[in-house]
Amino acid sequence: MPYGSRLAAMMTRRIGRECVYTPSARLALYLALRRWCRPGARVLMSPVNDDVILFVVLAAGLRPVQAPVSRWDGNIDPAAVPESTWRNVDAVLTTNLYGLPDRVVELRHRCDELGIPLIEDAAHAIGTHVDGQPIGTFGRVAAFSLSKHVAGMAGGFLAVDDARTRRELELLRDDLLTPRRLRADLATTLRPLARSAVRSLHLVRPVWRTMQRLRLLERDAFRMDLHAPRLASSARHAPSLTAYEPWVRVDLHGFRSRHGALVRGQLELRMALLDGDLARRRAGVSLLSGTTWASPALRDGAGDGPPPLFRVPLLVHDRDALLERLVNHGVVAGYVYDPPLDDYAGAEFVEPSPDPAPARWFAAHTLPADPLLARRIAGALTKERATTARPPIPAPPVFDTTTTTTTPPTPLGQ
C-alpha cells in the first residue's frame, strides 16, 4: 500500500477528490508546483502570506508575482490585477488566508480563459466552502495542512482529480522523503501533547517568556531573516528543495521526514475528531465576528453561517503592542504576515505588486485570533481597550476651475 494511504483515504472521503498524504503542507505545495509549473514560470500570489510559502515557490524554480489584494482579507483581488499581468503569468496560487476563501470562482474563470493552472493553498481552509463547494475542489490541485486544524503539528495532503495523477505524485513524493527517525517521531507525537498541557496548566506566559529570553524561537520577528546573499546563490540550483531547505524548514524541521506508524496513528485519531474541531471553530468565529474589531470580510461571507476559520482577522490599532500584552493574558497570537512579501523580499526575489497599499495596511493592522480561544481573546482586548482600525478614506478629487483638470486623490493607506 502507498505510504500514508489510510490518512489519504480519510481525506478523500471528506472532500471527494483523490488525495496524497505528505508529511507537511509545504512539501505538498512544492510537489504541486513542480508538477504543474515549468522552471522559470511566473506564479501570481498574494503578498500577505507565510514567508515559508515564498521560499517553497522559489525552491520550485519559479518567479513569485505579487498580486493586489483586498484590504479586508489579504487575498488576491482579481479585478485589481492588471490585464498585462494576467497575460504574463503561468499559474495562480491562492492563499485562503486564515480560512477566508479566495475569490476562487473568479480566479478559476480567469485561469480557464488563459489555460493556466489554479493551485489552491488550502492549508488554513479545511471545512471552508464557497457556494456549497469545499475549498480544495476548485483548482487543478490543492494542498491541505493537518497541523492547522487538528493540532497534529505534522501532516498534509494533495488533492487531485484522478487516480493516475495521484499515483504520479506519490512517486514524486517518495523521491523527496527523508528517512524516518524514531527520535523525531517521538518528538512529533509528544509536542502537541506538551502544548496542550501548557495551556491547560495556564503556563503560556512563563513558558513563552522563557523561550524568548533563551532565544529558543527560530524567528525574532514576524518574518525570518532573509539572508539575501545566500538566497540569491541558492537560485543557481533551483529547482531544488535541498538548496532552499534552510528557509523551507523553519518552524518545522521534519517537513519532509517519512513519518512512522506512531505519528500516522496519532494523526488518524486526531483527524477522526476533525468535525468537532470545526464546530468549535465556527462557534468562536461567530463570537469574534460580532466584535467591533472583526474584519468586514467576516460579515460579508456570513450567508451560510460562520466558517471554521483557522484564525479570525481582527483589525486593530497598535497591533504589535497588543500582541505583546496578550501574552500576559495567556495568548500567543502567531501567523502575522507583516511586512508583505514584496516589501520583505524586494524586487530581486519577487515581482512587486502594482498596488501595494492594501496589503501593507492589512498586514500592519491584522491580529490573527484563534477562534478556539475566542472568549479569552475578546476579554483580553476589552481589558486592553483595543481600538478598531479602519482604512483611511480617500480625499475627494480637487477640481481646478481654471484648467478643468482633476487632482487625483491620495491612494488608500499612503
Ordered list of secondary-structure elements with their pairings:
Layout: H1 5-15, E1 18-22, H2 25-36, E2 42-45, H3 51-59, E3 63-66, H4 83-86, E4 91-93, H5 104-114, E5 118-121, E6 129-130, E7 133-134, E8 141-145, H6 147-150, E9 156-160, H7 163-176, H8 182-200, H9 204-213, H10 228-234, H11 245-248, H12 261-272, H13 274-289, H14 296-300, E10 312-315, H15 319-327, H16 341-345, H17 357-365, E11 366-369, H18 374-383, E12 398-400, E13 405-407
Parallel strand pairs: 2-3, 2-4, 4-5, 5-8
Antiparallel strand pairs: 1-9, 6-7, 8-9, 10-11, 12-13
Helix pairs in contact: 2-3
Please provide the count of β strands: 13
Uncertain runs are 399-414
Radius of gyration from the alpha-carbon trace, in angstroms: 21 Å
Number of helices: 18
First-to-last CA distance? 56 Å
Mean pLDDT: 90
Morphology call: globular
Helix-strand category: alpha/beta
Sheet of most strands: 7 strands, mixed
Beta percentage is 5-15%
Oligomer: single chain
Percentage of helical residues? Answer: 40-55%
Spatial order of the strands in the main sheet? Answer: 1-9-8-5-4-2-3
